[in-house]
Structures are given as C-alpha cells and as structure tokens.
Amino acid sequence: MLDALNRKHQLKVVYVSEIKFQKEVRLVSRQDEFAKEVRQNIQNGAKSHFHLRNGLVWYKQNRLYVPEGKMRDIILKECHDGPLAGHGGAKHTITFLKKSYYWPNLKNNVEEYVKTCLVCQQNQTLNNKQASLLQPLPILEGSWESVSMDFMVSLPPSRGFNAIMVVVDRFNKMAHFIPIEDEATAQKMGRLFFTHVFKHHGFPKANLEKVHKRYKDFVDKSQ
Ligand SMILES: [Zn+2]
C-alpha cells in the first residue's frame, strides 16, 4: 500500500516536472537555430523525420528535440546520474536517452559526458584495483617464535596501571598478562616486552612499531 502511494506520488512529481520541462524547452526552442530550420522545412512541406506537436519539435515517433544549451546538460545528468540511470556506461546512457530525446551529435555528447564523469572515474579506479592473494600464516616450528598481542584498555586504575598488554604464543597458546598505562610509549612497551617475554623465551619475529600503532588505535577507539 505504502509502495503504491509512493509510486503515485513519484508519478505525480515526474508528470509535473515533465510539463514544466516541456514549457522550458518550448521557450528555448524559439531561439534555437536547428529548431527554427526544422519548423521552416516542415512549413515548406519538405519530407522530414520531424513533426510538430504542442509547439514542440519531435523526432520520429516520440523523441523530443532538446535545444542547444543547458537543457541538454540537464537531460544528460538525469539520464546518467539520476537514480534510474545509476551511472551506467555510455552505451546504456545513450539507449536510455534515445527513448525520449533527440538532438544532433547526441551520441558524441554522451560519450564525452560519461568519460568526464567523476563518479564513473572513481568507480573505474576501484574496479581496477587488483585483489592480492591471501598470505597464509607461516607454519610454526617452535614456541615463542611468533606471538600475537592484544590490549585491554580503559580499565579501573590499579597500582598506577589501567591497561593490560596480552602477549600470546601462537605455537602453544601460552599467555603473558602485562600491566601497563594507557599512555605507554613504544619504548616503554618494548622494555616491558623485554622484561616479561624476551627474558624468558627469546625474541620472536614481531614488529613492535606495528604493535604500538595497534595499541594506540585501541586506546583512541575506547575513548
Ligand atoms: Zn557517471
């Protein structure tokens, strides 16, 4: 029911704007050289693909002639950027446009418009980005060769600490829970890592800079 009402409303809006649009086309066409020539030819009785109806120039059956200038830009935008068009390619836009409108050089104008459309260019860039292959985690051969780190932040303060750095060995899942502060720097975390992990298990293949960035992201998100 709601859909039917929306549709009715939409049709009404389209209908009203169509009348307004045709009024504008009629007005602009009076000064348009091509429209003037077509009218002249028809009045002279020349055989033509055009005819006049409601003071407008029509091509073949139902294609409205759009005079040169901003009216063509409006139509181009509607038939390419509009919700029903959704930035289709040039071919799609031409087909859509040719159902209702006509002007000489229409095809070239559409191609040029689509080529310079920013939204289409951005989509093109996204589509061209190649997905890289998944890199599986290396197979581990021993304990504390590779560790994962996580942080629990914004905890109630206890003995000057309000966060916990969790270091887990990926091989045997053993974990160290190291108390730290929200404000801990990379150097501080490095020192803690040395005291709590390295001293007991040796140095894993870890990148502390990356770890610190991840920790800061956690803290920022939790605030
Ligand atoms: Zn586009």
Summarize the structure.
The chain is an alpha+beta fold and 223 residues long. It is 50% helix and 14% strand. It has a 4-stranded mixed β-sheet.
Can you describe what's shown?
This protein is α+β, with helices and mostly antiparallel strands and 223 residues long. The protein folds into two domains: 28-124, Endonuclease III, domain 1; 147-222, Ribonuclease H-like superfamily/Ribonuclease H (Nucleotidyltransferase, domain 5, 2-Layer Sandwich), CATH 3.30.420. The chain contains eight helices and seven strands. It has a four-stranded mixed beta sheet with strand order 1-2-3-4. A hairpin with a 3-residue loop joins strand 2 and strand 3. Helix 3 packs across helix 4 (90-98). The protein is rod-shaped. The model is unreliable at 9-13 (pLDDT under 50). Zinc ion binds at residues 80, 87, 117, 119-120. The site of zinc ion has 5 residues, from helix 6.
Number of helical stretches of at least 4 residues = 8
Q: Strand sequence of the main sheet, in spatial order?
A: 1-2-3-4
Low-confidence spans: pLDDT under 50, at least 5 residues? 9-13
Helix content: 40-55%
Strand portion: 5-15%
| CATH topology type of the largest domain | Endonuclease III, domain 1
Q: Determine Rg (CA atoms, Å).
A: 34 Å
**Small ligands present:** zinc ion
Shape: rod-shaped
Set out the fold topology.
Blueprint: H1 2-29, H2 33-43, E1 50-53, E2 56-59, E3 63-65, H3 70-81, H4 90-98, E4 101-102, H5 106-115, H6 118-128, E5 147-152, E6 163-169, E7 175-180, H7 186-201, H8 208-222
Parallel strand pairs: 3-4
Antiparallel strand pairs: 1-2, 2-3, 5-6, 6-7
